[in-house]
Amino acid sequence: MNTRHYPHWPAGLPYLLTVPETSVYANLEISARRYPGKAALIFYDSILTYAQLHADVEALAGYLQQACGVQRGDRVLLDMQNSPQFVIAFYAILRADAMVVPVNPMLMTDELRHYVNDSGAKVAVISQEVFPRLAPLVGSTGLSDAVVATYSDYLTAPTDLAVPEWVRAPRDVPALPRIGAWHAALAARHAPRPHAARPDDLACMPYTSGTTGQPKGCIHTHRSLMFTAVASPSWSVPLVPDQVTLAVLPFFHVTGMQVSMNSAIFNGGSIAILPRWDRDVAGQLITRYGVTGWTSIPTMMIDFLSNPRLFEYDVSSLKRVSGGGAAMPAAIAQKLRDLTGLQYMEGYGLSETMAATHTNPAQRLKKQCLGIPVFNVDSRVIDPATHKVMPPNEMGEIVMNGPQVFQGYWNDPKKTAEAFIEIDGKRFFRSGDLGYMDDEGFFFFTDRLKRMINASGFKVWPAEVEAMMYQHPAIQECCIIAAHDSYRGETVKAVIVTKPGVDADAEEIMQWAHEKMAAYKAPRIVEFVDALPKSATGKVMWRMLQEKELSK
To answer: What's the farthest any 2 CA atoms get from each other in the chain?
Structure first.
């Protein structure tokens, strides 16, 4: 066990954390019993109490079971922006003993097809503004039913906050067979069967990609979800129900899901929900509801602190500001400290670890640092080739063993086997990230073993984008690399060889890509070349192109 970081452990906390031996749904059930009249969700000044939240979860769970035929262990697709409906649907799927398959609402039809086919999902819960992308798959794939939600159903109180038009939009659910409107599904008040899921039952399957192939499902049980849901609020803030979380990171992503949603519900706290980033509304919510915790990404914090209206907002209630996904620029971290007296707490985790495995301790925050291994986590740095454990300050691959580590990749035993390594009789997950551990046991990121682009915290896997780009009739060869972006950190660039005799236009290709894939994946820069550099075996030397681009 690596214990080098123990001298810098948060005061008063144990090294090992005991978490409940119950399902994640039970956290909501217990909080609803304890705090029935307390605000659970705040949605543009509309309040949903814990009692109301739990009642809606029960009703939707009953509908999924009785009307849609959802059984224990079934996968249910969840596709929508942050909203009360996302929280309700997430817990209703768990209440129905099924597995949540959260997907990015930016995904297009061809991308969604893979998630449906790979997961075997028979039912989807989706918001009405993205439903047209899923509609062609209902009935033509294994997807037989969909429940379509309208965000404005939960705008129950007047507000002077800037509510986007697509959130205010009235109900517009098509009257089609096997398509249920959210309000009607809840109004039916079907009673769910007794809850049967246990800690080792399937709970959630976020998707991630890799160096090759399509996105892969990361299998998480209630046990691995429960661990980070409990560990996160235990790390640096008092475990009291009077915390208010600003939820701006997307719930479909493991950090937003765990830190902003599941941790708050375990704790009986209130969640102020933003469906999409808006720096003014964020400032108004912090001021109006006394937000105590906010997990963000650097691009959000940069935008928030550059707001000329910042002086109008009272952010003195904030007790913890944290994040990850990319390193926080030192100048922005200093500006945050000058404004609030708080240091930005950076952490590190992956879809495979259901959020953080490393976090900075509050009393010893190091800048642009992944932090130290959290409760119950044993993390090492190994030589990627020999698997030898590296000494401090020597670079290698970061690996970790802990209760939040996933069970494996869905229907892919080969990739699962490749993802793990045994050290000292323990099973460690290979992160694919290169870094080092300093003399005090703090971990730092230096490079990627896996080929990946980080665009404003969204992970883009070049192999997946390349596979889609080859559908364009003018493209003979394509290599996707990262390019510098002053706001997003990195953005997607396509280096393209066109087919002989075919003229191609960069703007047309970029527009085509935007129609085919999620906006964050679509190339924003296109460069045409006569040939791609290749190795003696014919493989495209993407790293050569990448290094050339990043050296500009």
So the answer is: 71
Q: CA-to-CA distance for 102 and 82, rounded, in angstroms?
A: 12
Confirm if 266 and 228 have CB atoms less than 8 A apart: no
pLDDT tens figures, 305-361: 989 999 999 999 999 999 876 677 777 888 888 888 888 899 999 999 999 999 999
Name the domain boundary from 448, 472, 492: 448
Same domain, 411 and 483: no
Alpha helices, DSSP H, located in 361-445: 413-418
**Mean of pLDDT values over 161-180:** 96
Tell me: the pLDDT tens digits for 235-292?
877 778 999 999 999 999 999 999 999 999 999 999 999 999 999 999 999 999 999 9
Single-letter residue type at 316 = S
Q: Is 218 helix (H, G, I), strand (E, B) or coil?
A: strand
Same domain assignment for residues 51 and 154: yes
- Rounded to an integer, what distance in angstroms lies between the CA atom of residue 207 and that of residue 119? 10
* Helix (H) or strand (E) segment spanning residue 506: helix 506-516
Of 536 and 472, the structure prediction assigns the larger pLDDT to 472
In terms of residue numbers, what domain contains 527? 453-550
- Amino acid residing at 450: K
- Residues with Cβ < 8 Å from 132, sequence gap 6 or more? none
Q: Are residues 99 and 139 in the same domain?
A: yes
Task: Evaluate the CA torsion angle 232, 235, 237, 239 in order and state its sign.
Answer: positive
Residues 506 and 423 in one domain: no
- In whole angstroms, give the CA distance from residue 42 to residue 161: 12
User: Residue 28: which H helix or E strand, with range?
Assistant: helix 25-34
Q: How many domains would you assign to the chain?
A: 3
